[in-house]
Amino acid sequence: MGARNRHEITRVDAFPLREPISGRAYTLVRIRTKSGLTGHGECSVVSGADLEHARQVLIGRAATSYVGSVVGLPMHPAVITAMLDIIGQACAAPLYRVLGGPTRNKIRVMTSLDGSESAELEASLSSGLKAGFRAFRVRTPATGARIRGQAYVRSVRARLQALRPPAGDNVDFVLDADGRLSPGDAASLAADLEDFHLLWFDEPCPLSDLPRVRRIAETTVMPLGFGRSVNQPHTFQDLLREGILDVARPDLLRESAVDIRRIAALAETYYVAVAPHHEGGPVATATAIHLAASLPNFFIQHIPLPSSEADQSMRGELLSHPVEISSDGFAALISGPGLGIAVNERALEKYKDTES
Amino acid sequence: MRRRQFLSQTLLGGALAPHLGASDVCRCMSPGWQANVTAEDPLANVASGLKITNLKVFGVSLSLQSDRPYVFVKLETNQGVIGWGEATLEGKAGAVLACVEDFREFLIGYDPMPVEHIWQSMYVHSFYRAGPVIGSAISGIDQALWDIRGKVLGMPVYELLGGPLDTRGVRGYYHAQAETREELLKLRETAVRDGVSCFKAGLPQYYEWIERRAKIKRALESMQLLREGLGPDIDIAVDFHAKTSPSVASILVKEVEPLNLLFIEEPCPPENVMAMARISRRSTTPIATGERLIASYGVRELVEMGAVDILQTDINHVGGITGLWKVASLAGISDVSMAPHACEGPIGGVATLHVDAAIPNFLIQEVCSGAVPDEKDRIWEEWLGFPAMRMVNGWFPLPEKPGLGLELSEDSLTRFPFAGTRPMARVFHEDGSVAEW
Q1: How many CB pairs under 8 A join A and B?
Q2: What is the pLDDT of residues A58-95, one digit of tens each?
Q3: Which residues of A touch B (CB under 8 A)?
Q4: A112 - beta bridge partners?
Q5: Which residues in chain B have Cβ-Cβ distances shorter than 8 Å to A194?
Q6: pTM exceeds 0.95
Q7: Torsions phi, psi of A200, nearest 5?
Q8: Nearest to B83 by CA among B388, B407, B356, B332
Q9: What are phi and psi of B75, to 5 degrees?
Q10: The complex's ipTM?
C-alpha cells in the first residue's frame, strides 16, 4: 500500500441521535484510520444494513480517496464529511482550506421562526435576534384548502407585516411554503408579495411539472429557492435551464459537501447563489460552515435553532465548541484542523435514538 | 528586411517538409509549422500597390495609476500614408501591446486596403477565437487600416460606410458624475444650457446574487433620485455594470419601469445569455449590454434570443470599425439599437463616431467624461488639434478630413510614457468575498 494508503480506514461506526423535544433525528458517522485519525460526519437515519454496506465499501480504502467512495444514501454525506475531516487533520488544515477556501472571512446565517400565532412568531424572532441572527425563515400558514384566494394572500401579508416592526429595517425574511402550494397559487402569492423584498420564496410548490413551476418565475420577479425536494443533482440543471432557480438549496443530509460544491459550480454559471438546506444537527452545521467558506457563490446558511432548552443543551453537549454567531448575522469560520470540532462521545450514548 | 525574413522562413518550411504535396497538407492534424509555407499574399494579383512597411504600438499612460494606458497603433506605408488606431484594453495593457506585435507578420509587406480580408485573417488564423486581448489588438489594427483606406480614397470613414445619416453629427451622453439632489439639479441646469439630452449614472453599492431588502430599497431610491433631480425631459440611462445577478436585477428593472429610463446597462454579467433573457423578458425597461463582447459572433445569441434591446459593443474591443459595423448590421435586422461603449482614448472615440454616423439603428454614443471638460479632455484636444469627444448642443460633430479625420504626432505622446499595466478595481463584499463592480 505504501504512501498511497497511509490513512487506511479500519472502522466505521454510526450513532443514531434524536432531539428529545423536537424529535429531529440524525446520525453521526465516525470513521477511524490505521494512522490513528478519527473523522466525523452527519447524515439522516441509518439502518443496520446501510452501515454494513458502508463498512464493506470503506474498510481497507484510503480515507483520502473520497471521490471514489460511493456508499449511497443515507450515509454518503456523512462518509464524505468524515473523510474530509480526516484529510484536514492529516494536513493540519481546516476543512475549508482543504477545499480551496477561504472565499470569505465570515458566514452569513439565518434560522427559522417557530410557531403559527403571531405571539409565538414574535417570541421566536426575539430569541433569534438575541442569538445574533439577522435573517429568518417564516413558514406560510398551513391550510387544508386547495384554492386559497385573497383571504390566504392576506393572511401571509399580515404575518409578514406583523414581523416588520419588532424586526426593524435591517432584518430579512425567507418565506417557506414547504412545497405545499400549487404552482398557480404560488405565483399569485409571489406576485402579491413582491413589494416585501423577501430574500426569496422557498419551495413554493412541488417540482412535479416544471412548465407550470416556470410560470411563477415568468409572472413575478420574486426570487425562488428549491432544493430539499430535489432527489437527483441533475434536477438543478433542469431548474437552471428553465430559469426557475434563484437560490440553489441542496440538502446537507442528502448531498455531500463535495456534491454541493459541484452543484454550486453549475449554479455559478447562471449567477445563481447557493444556500444549502440544513435541518440536521451540529456536525452538519460545522460541515456547512466549512462548505460556505469554500464556495464563491454562497449566500446564506440556515442553522436550526431549537426552541426548547433540552434540544439546545443536547446540541451543546454533542460538540465541545458550538458555532459562534456574532451580533451582525454572521458566523465565524471554524479554525481547527478538519471539521475543527471535538465530539463528546458520552453525549452520543446519552442522546442515542432508540426509536429508529 | 522583413521580406527577406519572410522568404527565409518559406525556405525553412520547405526544407523541413520536402515530400509534402497539397493533399498531404490537408491530412495533417497540426499544420501550424506550415503556416509560413502558405503565407504568400494570396491577393498579390489584385493588390493596390500600397504596402504596409511598419507597425508601431504605443503604450500611453495619462497617469502612473491609470488602469487603462492607451494602446495606440500606427501603421506606415510605402507611399507615406499612415493610419492610427486604438487597441486600449482596460487592466491588460501589457497583454494587448504584445498581442498587437504578434500580428506583425499579418501586416508587414501586405496591401492595407482589403481590410475585411486582413480582419478575417487576424481573426480566423489566430485559431483561438478572439477574446478581449486578441479582439482589442485586431480592433486597433483595423481602425488604422480604415484610417489609411479613407485617406487613400479621400473620404471620411463615415462616407465610405454610406453616412452621415444626420448632418448634426452623432447624439451622445456624458456620465452624470452627480449623486446628491443638489448635484443633480445643478447638472440639469448645465444640460439645459449646453443642449445635452442624456446622462448615464452608475448604480450605488455592490450586490450579492441574492440581496437584502435594505440594499434593494437603496438602489431603487438612487434611480428615483436621478429622475427627480434631472427632471422629466432628460434621458437617463443607468449602468448596473454587471454588479447584479439576474435575480436582483429582475427586481430592480421591473420596479423602475415608471421612471421610463432610456436603458439599464449590463443588468448581469455577460457569460450567460439565458440569464440575461430572464431579466429582459420580465420587464419593459430597455436592456443594453455588450461592452465586453468580441466580434459579431459575440452578440449573436443575445440577438437571436431576443434578450437585448440595445447593443453597446466597443470599437476598441469588438474588432474595430469592421467589427462594430457588423454588430450594428445584424442588430439592425432584428431592430436592436446601438449605443456603443467608449471609455478609453480619443482615437477609438473618434473612430466610433464614424460608424455611428452610418448605421440606421444608432441610438446614442457614450463618452466616459462629465458635462464639464477636465484635464483629460484638454490633453486630447492638444493631441488631435480639436476638442475630441466633446459635444456641441448634445451632438458630437463629425470630422471632415479623410480617414478617421485626426492627426497625431508621436512627439506629442512622449510626455505620457507607458507606466505599466495597472489592474482595474478589485472590490469585495462585507464578508471579504469577491464582488463585481
Answers
A1: 88
A2: 999 999 999 988 899 999 999 999 999 999 999 999 99
A3: 102-108, 135, 169-170, 172, 194, 196-200, 217-218, 221, 223, 241, 243, 246-247, 269-273, 275, 296-300, 330
A4: A137
A5: 251, 254
A6: no
A7: -165, 170
A8: B407
A9: -110, 135
A10: 0.94
